[in-house]
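can u pls check wat happens w/ biotin
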Amino acid sequence: MDAYKLISLDKISSTQDWAHDLIAKKQASDKTVIVATAQTAGRGRYRRKWVSHTGNLYASFIYKITERNPKISYAIAIAVAETLMEFGLTPKIKWPNDILVNGKKISGILIEYAQNFVIIGIGINIKTCPTVPEYQTTKMSRFTDATVPDVLNVLIKKIDKLRNADFNAVRERWTELALGIRGKIKYHGSEMEIIGINKNGALILRHGAHYILTYGDEISI
Ligand code: BTN
């Protein structure tokens, strides 16, 4: 693993925003990780707030890219899930890249682009889990006494290994870890079964004899 540049900060607004600023100021380099102890304006997907008290992991990984690759979100979800597994947890991935333990969200991933960089934001609940209206939450301290540096160390190694992995291997691993495979989920109000992801990264759903491909919609389990 080539060296990563680690920028370790106290409480800031958001590691994603910090990454965007670095890029805008032309000070960003490939393989930079920004970590903060807490965030005052942590952001999630769907313009949601990511409540960010001290004790959890808040990190944004910056990589230089030549083109956008939406499939990276699967590799990152696996990296987070495998990180949790190293500490004895049994995570599942909820499409496209929420990480749940016992059906409760423990980690979220936010992928953004700026200039020729991708910014991969990851939040992992270690010591605290907020109560939010949208879903139930849990935290690593219910299962392990791992610290933020312990988790970050493993996470960097997993991401480094998986981000350039062959997509067929990623697809297979994602399917193994995904919630709702061969089970029932709700998609636009109808009960469907998740079959897996195709070679372009679309989710394959089955509704009776019909197969449906989707890229971005949320499903409910
Ligand atoms: C989600 O599930 O909605 C994604 C949450 C992503 C949260 C992380 S915490 C580190 C980084 N900084 C942010 O402001 N957001 C991401």
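The mean pLDDT is 93.
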